[in-house]
């Protein structure tokens, strides 16, 4: 990242956010000419200005560190291992939340949608799926979209896969993460997956319910679930800012009965 021009990074992120140079400059309190010089590499921004721009573009903490490094400054936000002692209390709290959510599936995922924590109900859903299919650690995109994973058991696969592919496309484009790009290119070769270039424009299917449900066959019974995705609102650590908690809930009484019985 140190070889990249911070101006290019700012311009790219501003474009992704669909913000004009004029509006962003006035919003952060500098002249459009100054912002233009920063983006063109004619003026080196201070660390404070970089962070002000990043805040107004809602840039994740990991990318804020990248901007600082690209401009020759030290990273501002620490990245602590979730399994380390510093985050032990937070890790235990998230795990307690997931365990309390049982018998409904719940998991914590990082920015690549790798599972970091899960409860027993979530582990029951993927029981029997080979490790080489799920990935190490288990990756939600791989597990849900692979033909030997949950794809063959998903009764509304066209609708559910479209939702996941749009999420993967946005994540790969926004972060420019090589691992996500590689994963996207691999998934594009799997059966029943549309061409990679179409993912961002996959239509959202019209459904009768308020939210799109995931209809999954489990042991000869069909489950229907919707999910709630949440993040830390006050994270100042890169690891926690990348972490999301996804909780699945039964979309009908039959699913609730099945999940409670299987627990």
Automatic annotation (TrEMBL):
Record protein name field: XRE family transcriptional regulator
UniProt cross-references to Gene3D superfamilies, sorted A to Z: 3.30.450.180, lambda repressor-like DNA-binding domains
PROSITE patterns per the UniProt record, alphabetical: HTH_CROC1
Domain HTH cro/C1-type residue range list: 10-64
Listed Pfam families: HTH_3, MLTR_LBD
InterPro entries registered for this protein in UniProt: Cro/C1-type_HTH (IPR001387), Lambda_DNA-bd_dom_sf (IPR010982), MLTR_LBD (IPR041413)
């Amino acid at each position: 990242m140190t070889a990249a021009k911070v101006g290019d990074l700012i311009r790219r992120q501003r474009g992704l956010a669909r913000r004009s140079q004029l509006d962003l400059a006035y919003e952060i309190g500098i002249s459009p000419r100054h912002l233009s010089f920063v983006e063109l590499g004619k003026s080196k921004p201070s660390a404070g200005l970089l962070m002000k721009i990043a805040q107004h573009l809602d840039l994740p903490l990991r990318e804020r560190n990248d901007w600082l490094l690209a401009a020759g400054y030290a990273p501002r936000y620490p990245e602590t291992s979730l399994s380390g002692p510093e985050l032990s209390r937070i890790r235990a709290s998230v795990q307690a939340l997931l365990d309390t959510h049982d018998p409904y599936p719940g998991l914590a995922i990082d920015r690549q949608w790798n599972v970091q924590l899960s409860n027993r109900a979530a582990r029951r859903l993927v029981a029997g799926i080979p490790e080489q299919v799920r990935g190490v650690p288990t990756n939600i995109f791989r597990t849900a979209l692979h033909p030997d994973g949950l794809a063959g058991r998903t009764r509304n696969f066209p609708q559910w896969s479209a939702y996941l592919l749009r999420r993967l496309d946005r994540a790969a484009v926004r972060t420019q993460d090589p691992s996500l790009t590689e994963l996207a290119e691999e998934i594009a070769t799997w059966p029943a997956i549309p061409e990679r270039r179409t993912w961002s424009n996959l239509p959202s299917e019209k459904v009768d319910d308020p939210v799109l449900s995931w209809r999954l066959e489990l042991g000869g019974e069909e489950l229907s679930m919707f999910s709630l995705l949440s993040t830390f609102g006050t994270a100042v650590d890169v690891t926690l800012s990348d972490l999301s908690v996804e909780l699945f809930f039964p979309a009908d009484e039959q699913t609730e009965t099945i999940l409670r019985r299987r627990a």
